[in-house]
Structures are given as structure tokens and as C-alpha cells.
Design goal:
- The chain is α+β, with helices and mostly antiparallel strands.
- The protein is about 30% helix and about 25% strand.
- The protein has ten helices and 24 strands.
- Helix 6 packs antiparallel against helix 10.
- The chain starts with a strand and ends with a strand.
Length: about 450
């Protein structure tokens, strides 16, 4: 592997082999300064002598990257990380906030994420500058984001009685240690459960309460994994210069949707938030073959698949009014929701290149042809219907998308329309779920 440090304006980048093909991995440059006070912390989870997460753990060695991160959680002095040669990445979108800090270690090829570090606030005058501050314990993430016109988060959960939306009431800059829906202890335990079951997850290496924040009500985490490149910045991993899918995108899709299928049908779990930020491409940068896969993380919103298979839920096929209604069971609804949300995000890979196509017919052809290719790979991997049925679901989604565009829907809503219509139709046509999903003409 060859890596190179560019100017701050250009950011850091490295070149590495991804399944034998040389790729350039880019990192978005940003600065992080600190105004945060000192934390008193207690480490309750770490790695034992066998490298497994345990409450009976071996302390990190002095001078190690891992020990440095614990020291930074205590002190808030984030500049120590860059002084040690680590690279900040996963810059929050303009105006958004975070409580997590992702860093890459060029020496080991590993990425680390520190959770519960504090309130990482944007600089209104500089989108590439953030300031680490004390948490706002009297303000929730949802209300803060709403006031500033940004995504409020939250999760749509299904039970035997139907669905409900759980708002993100986490405080700004902190995460509860062992209470509430997004708590640290459940998150690390659920992640370990998934890892043991064969799901590719990050490895938690430390966690504990922050005693100086309401006597340990809030906590911190540290996890590490192979490098997880930033999504849009590294779209070239997936698309060639002609905006066609590369082989490694198919590799990623197969890794991702085989794991989602395993969660759904073997482990009996739904993720709840399988967004692009929670289902990441990961690369072993010091390897050259079989070094790209999908990492799934943030298992604080996973839930058992509902058992109710009666068609008690009535919904639309997609967020856009389509002229159809779907009647479905809570069991199928939970699975469809995961698949639909994941595909909606997946199809975003086509948005940037499609913006440069000015002819409407050519744009439609590009979007539908590439989307169909993507959906075929997903259908074969998720594997609930024969390929003929999967193709029928794709054709139904494309034709309905055309009808909706002709009726005035934005052509740029392709991801919401195709993902929702395809996911519902695929389930409706499958032998396993067809009795639980009925698509009918409606409003």
C-alpha cells in the first residue's frame, strides 16, 4: 500500500489494492478544536487476553493508540490524535452535529470510532471546522436538529400490533450508559451477539460510564474495524468513469444483502436503521484480495421480527402516492422496511452521475437500467423469490416509476419509488411471504 498526505485543503488520501485493482481512497478534510472540560471516566469493558470483549479485561499498553484514545476521552484534547499521526474522517454534513469521532490509523490500517466524546458542534462560518464542547444535557438531539432544520433521526419499529416511530431523545453530545433506547450497554451486547452469529461488525474494545456526567448516567465507547471509507467521497469505488457499476460494487452488495437475509431469516432480527451510515463498505487496506465487504453497525435499534402474520397494516408502496395500497402483516412489514430503507440509500449511488445528464429520456434510461442491475443482484442475494419473479418485481417498479414521472413526480425521486415498489412487489410474489402482502389499486 502507498499512502500520501496532501495539503489540508485537499485532505488525506491513500492508494490501496481492492480485490487486485488499485483504488484511491479519499478523506474529507476538517479541523476539530476543543473547548470541552475534563471527564472522569471508568472503563468497565475492554479486551481480555484472547482479544474478546469482557468486563475482565487487560489494560491497554502505555503508548498504544487505544490508550491514547482513552486519554483523549478523559481530557478532551483531540489535537493529541492528529499529533500522533491519526486522521480525522467522516466529517459531519454541513450544519450537523455529532457525539462520535472517527479516526484512521495509517500505520495499522484500522479505523477507530470514539462514541460519547461530547458535543461536536459546527462552526457557522467554516464548514470544515468543528468544536468539541461539553454535552447539552438539557437538550435532545431531535429538538436541536429540528430547530436548525436538519434530520431529526428516529427509528420506525414494528411489533405484532403494528408500527411506531421512536424519536431520538438522546441528549446532545452524550449517550446514556445503561438506560434508554440508544444506551451503550445494549449496543455493545447486541453487537457482540451479531458478531458471534457471523455478521460483520466493528469490534468494541472499551466502554464505561462517565462519572462526571450525572454520576455515570452517560457513557463512552471505543470500537475499531478495517477502514470504512466515506461514502459519497469515494463513489469511484463503485462507479467507473462511464458511471457504470464496477465489480466491487457487486461484491459489496452481495456481502450486505446476504447478511441482511441472515439477520432476517436465520437470526430473526431486523436492524431498524440500515442506512448507508450503518451499513458501510470496509476495506482491509494491507490486503490485496477478498478485502472488501459490508460492515453493519449501530445495533441499538435492532428488534425481533414480529410473529403476527395477519394482514393488519395498510400502507403505500412508497413515500410517493402511487395509486396502489398494500396490505401486509407486521412480520413482513418489518422485513420490507429494512429492505426498502436500505435500497433507497443504495440507489443514491446513481444520483451524482445522473445530475449531469440533461436529456430527460437519457436520464430515465440511465437510472432505470442501472437500478435494474442493482436490484437483480439484491434479489438474487436476498433470495426469497425465483429470478423470474424478481424480474417481474423489477419490471413492475420501473413501469410504475415511468407512470409516476409522466404524472408529474420528480424524476429524481427514483430511489424512493423504485426501492419501495420493488421491495413490496418482491415480497408479494414470493412463496414465503405472498400470503402476507397484498397489493391493490387504491388512492
Amino acid at each position: 500500500m502507498n499512502s500520501s498526505q496532501q495539503s489540508e485543503r485537499e485532505g488525506y488520501s491513500l492508494t490501496c489494492q481492492v480485490n487486485g485493482v488499485e483504488e484511491r481512497i479519499r478523506f474529507s478534510p476538517y479541523r476539530l478544536t476543543s473547548e470541552r472540560s475534563t471527564f472522569e471516566i471508568s472503563q468497565e469493558y475492554g479486551l481480555d487476553k484472547d482479544g474478546k470483549l469482557s468486563t475482565d479485561f487487560v489494560p491497554f499498553e502505555d503508548g498504544s493508540v487505544e490508550q491514547l484514545m482513552l486519554d483523549v476521552i478523559r481530557s478532551g484534547e483531540v489535537d493529541q490524535l492528529t499529533q500522533a499521526g491519526l486522521v480525522f474522517y467522516e466529517r459531519p454534513p454541513a450544519g450537523n452535529i455529532s457525539r462520535n469521532l472517527a479516526v484512521y490509523d495509517p500505520k495499522s490500517g484500522l479505523s477507530y470510532t470514539i462514541g460519547g466524546l461530547g458535543f461536536i458542534a459546527p462552526d457557522p462560518d467554516d464548514k470544515a471546522h468543528f468544536v468539541l464542547k461539553d454535552p447539552l444535557l438539557d437538550d435532545s438531539y431531535e429538538s436541536y436538529q429540528r430547530r436548525h432544520g436538519h434530520n431529526e433521526g428516529g427509528t420506525k419499529l414494528y411489533s405484532d400490533d403494528g408500527f411506531k416511530v421512536v424519536s431520538n431523545q438522546s441528549v446532545v453530545g452524550a449517550v446514556e450508559y445503561q438506560s434508554g433506547p440508544y444506551q451503550v450497554v445494549r449496543k455493545i451486547n447486541e453487537t457482540e451477539k451479531m458478531k458471534v452469529a457471523g455478521i460483520s461488525t466493528p469490534t468494541f474494545i472499551a466502554a464505561g460510564p462517565i462519572q462526571s456526567l450525572e454520576s455515570g448516567k452517560y457513557g463512552f465507547t471505543i470500537y475499531r474495524s478495517p477502514l470504512t471509507p466515506e461514502y459519497l467521497l469515494n463513489i469511484s469505488l463503485y462507479l467507473d468513469q462511464g458511471a457504470n457499476f464496477k465489480k466491487n460494487f457487486e461484491v459489496f452488495l452481495k456481502s450486505k444483502y446476504s447478511q441482511i437475509a441472515q439477520m432476517h431469516r436465520v437470526l430473526g432480527e431486523t436492524h431498524g436503521q440500515p442506512s448507508n451510515t450503518n451499513t458501510l463498505c470496509q476495506i482491509g487496506v494491507f490486503d490485496e484480495q477478498d478485502n472488501l465487504s459490508c460492515q453493519i453497525k449501530d445495533f441499538q435499534t435492532n428488534q425481533p421480527v414480529p410473529e403476527n402474520r395477519e394482514k393488519t397494516i395498510e400502507d403505500g408502496l412508497c413515500p410517493i402516492a402511487s395509486g396502489y395500497l398494500v396490505k401486509k402483516s407486521p412480520h413482513a412489514s418489518a422485513l420490507i422496511y429494512d429492505l426498502q430503507l436500505s435500497l433507497t440509500q443504495e440507489l443514491n449511488v446513481l444520483f451524482v452521475p445522473s445530475r449531469y445528464i440533461k436529456d430527460v429520456q437519457q436520464k430515465f434510461n440511465y437510472l432505470t437500467n442501472q437500478s435494474a442491475r442493482l436490484l437483480r443482484v439484491v434479489a438474487l442475494t436476498y433470495d426469497i423469490a425465483e429470478i423470474e419473479k424478481a424480474q417481474e418485481a423489477i419490471d413492475f417498479a420501473v413501469h410504475l416509476y415511468l407512470d409516476l414521472v409522466k404524472a408529474g413526480a420528480s424524476i429524481d425521486k427514483y430511489n424512493e419509488i423504485l426501492a419501495g415498489v420493488f421491495a413490496h412487489k418482491l415480497f408479494a410474489l414470493s412463496a414465503a411471504y405472498g400470503k402476507e402482502v397484498e397489493i391493490v389499486k387504491g388512492k
